[in-house]
């Protein structure tokens, strides 16, 4: 099959669904540490990720994907457990129509993880970045994809390895009605990305000490492979479309191909990175482009929101369970209720790409107190919280959500509206009395354990 722009566009259009069929998918990343030392867990050894996976297979019916060693992913029914490069475990949940199903799946997963991890002295933290270990102290997961990324992205951003090995997030996937709705959601997700960073900032520590950043995860991402991260160029243009997103993706350098299970690193040509558009025209070392190459390539785009056959939001630090579920409810209320979505768009009417890039650089450091449009991000965050609640209530009335889904927002309201803080600021306040680094680390672990 000869690939073309029309084929790529049809792939995006396949994601179109009637509103009654919309669901929410969530990827729950989390950070593992050894309780006694606070150091990042290893992949191998008697108390590492590999052992955890083997116990999940033996005790809970998970199946290795693929079956060959080393085990780097698990599957049960339509749910997957995968690994990030530094051993962060991710639950890729089934998309669900009601949030209770997302919650039930997460809680069941955590129950299993706790049962197999606690005997090994491992705890899981709801934080956006490792509190103690830094990239050069964390081993690599033996995954072929990551081996290629490690080599190809080595000099593409000063904190790329930190992004890969230290960070964790809650990633939320949304359905769309058609092209217009998909682009509206993609643009709104990009517009609100600094707000998501600020509201859910939850990674204020480095080497067990307060860092200059409330969301160190977001700061790390700002120093990562700029050609495939950050803000999508042109996204705030009113004429942005599937075609424009395809134009952008075609210009992103190609990292890898897969043929018969073999991962192939795509190197440079005459010293320059091979963009997908170059590969489309000329192939690579005898390999001809396939639709699967394109789909794989889209997973190597790391912008704050991105497009596949759904819209994915990627700007939220990992949280403990109540705030993680609140984040999902927050996004659902804002994006699936048309009135809430339009009101949220109106709050940022006319924002430019330059303004957004500036805001995205400031939000990781100052979070809700970041100034914007004569106010600060707390003002806009509280307004979005109100809109999300109203949206969830209307969705409940329409039968597009459970009646009680607005209740999932309560933990967020307690911290954002009542205390007027981000999770990071609350965590800093709770640990401020501990001057001894070891004592502070113990308290961070106690307060952040999922």
Q: Can you offer a commentary on this structure?
A:
There is one protein chain. Helices cover 45% and strands 15% of the residues. It is of the alpha+beta class and 450 residues long. It has one domain: Creatine Kinase, Chain A, domain 2 (2-Layer Sandwich). Strands 1, 2, 3, 4, 5, 6, 7, 14 and 15 form a 9-stranded antiparallel beta sheet that branches. It has a two-stranded antiparallel ribbon with strand order 8-9. Strand 2 (63-64) and strand 3 (73-76) form a beta hairpin. Helix 11 crosses helix 12 (338-347) and helix 11 (321-336) packs across helix 14 (377-398). The longest helix is centred in the last third of the chain and has 22 residues, at 377-398.
Distance between the termini: 47 Å
Beta-strand residue fraction: 5-15%
Q: Roughly what percent helix?
A: 40-55%
Gyration radius, in Å: 21 Å
Q: How many strand units?
A: 17
Main sheet makeup: 9 strands, antiparallel
For the record, the CATH class is Alpha Beta
CATH architecture field: 2-Layer Sandwich
Quaternary arrangement of the chains shown?
single chain
How many separate domains make up the residues? Answer: 1
Task: Name the overall outline.
Answer: globular
Topology (SSEs and partners):
Layout lengths: L4 H9 L10 E11 L14 H12 L2 E2 L8 E4 L2 E5 L5 E4 L6 H19 L4 E4 L18 H9 L7 H7 L2 E6 L4 H21 L5 E2 L2 E2 L5 H7 L6 E2 L11 H10 L4 E4 L2 E4 L10 H7 L8 H8 L3 E2 L1 E3 L3 E7 L3 H16 L1 H10 L5 H14 L4 E2 L2 E2 H22 L11 H9 L4 H9 L5 H12 L2
Parallel strand pairs: 10-13
Antiparallel strand pairs: 1-5, 1-6, 1-7, 2-3, 3-4, 4-5, 7-15, 8-9, 11-12, 14-15, 16-17
Helix pairs in contact: 2-3, 3-11, 6-13, 6-14, 7-13, 11-12, 11-14, 12-14, 14-15
């Amino acid at each position: 099959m000869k690939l073309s722009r029309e084929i790529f566009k049809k792939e995006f259009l396949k994601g179109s669904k009637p509103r009654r069929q919309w669901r929410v998918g969530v990827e729950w990343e989390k950070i593992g540490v050894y309780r006694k030392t606070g150091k990042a867990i290893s992949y191998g050894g008697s108390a590492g990720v590999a052992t955890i996976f083997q116990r999940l297979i033996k005790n809970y019916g998970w199946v290795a994907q693929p079956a060959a060693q080393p085990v780097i992913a698990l599957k049960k029914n339509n749910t997957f457990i995968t690994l990030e490069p530094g051993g962060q475990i991710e639950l890729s949940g089934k998309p669900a129509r009601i949030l209770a199903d997302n919650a039930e799946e997460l809680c069941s997963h955590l129950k299993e993880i706790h049962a197999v991890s606690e005997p090994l002295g491992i705890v899981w933290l709801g934080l956006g970045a490792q509190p103690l270990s830094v990239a050069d102290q964390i081993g690599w997961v033996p995954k072929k994809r990551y081996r290629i990324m490690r080599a190809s992205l080595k000099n593409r951003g000063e904190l790329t390895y930190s992004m890969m090995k230290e960070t964790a997030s809650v990633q939320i996937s949304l359905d769309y009605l058609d092209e217009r709705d998909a682009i509206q959601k993609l643009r709104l997700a990009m517009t609100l990305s600094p707000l998501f960073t600020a509201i859910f900032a939850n990674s204020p520590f480095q080497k067990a000490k307060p860092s200059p950043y409330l969301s160190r995860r977001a700061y790390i991402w700002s120093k990562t492979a700029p050609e495939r991260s950050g803000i999508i160029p042109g996204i705030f243009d009113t004429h942005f479309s599937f075609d424009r997103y395809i134009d952008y993706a075609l210009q992103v350098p190609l990292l890898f191909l897969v043929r018969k299970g073999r991962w192939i690193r795509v190197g440079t040509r005459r010293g320059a990175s091979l963009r997908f558009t170059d590969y489309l025209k000329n192939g690579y070392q005898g390999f001809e482009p396939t639709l699967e190459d394109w789909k794989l390539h889209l997973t190597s785009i790391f912008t704050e929101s991105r497009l596949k056959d759904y819209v994915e939001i990627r700007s939220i630090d990992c949280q403990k369970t109540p705030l993680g579920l609140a984040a999902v409810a927050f996004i659902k209320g804002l994006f699936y209720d048309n009135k809430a979505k339009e009101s949220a768009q109106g709050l940022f009417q006319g924002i430019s790409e330059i303004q957004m890039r500036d805001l995205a650089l400031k939000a990781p450091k100052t979070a809700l107190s970041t100034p914007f449009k004569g106010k600060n991000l707390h003002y806009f965050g509280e307004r979005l919280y109100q809109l999300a609640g109203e949206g969830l209530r209307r969705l409940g009335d329409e039968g597009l959500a459970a009646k009680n889904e607005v209740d999932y927002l309560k933990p967020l309201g307690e911290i954002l509206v009542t205390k007027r803080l981000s999770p990071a600021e609350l965590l800093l306040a709770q640990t401020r009395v501990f001057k001894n680094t070891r004592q502070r680390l113990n308290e961070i672990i106690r307060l952040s354990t999922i």
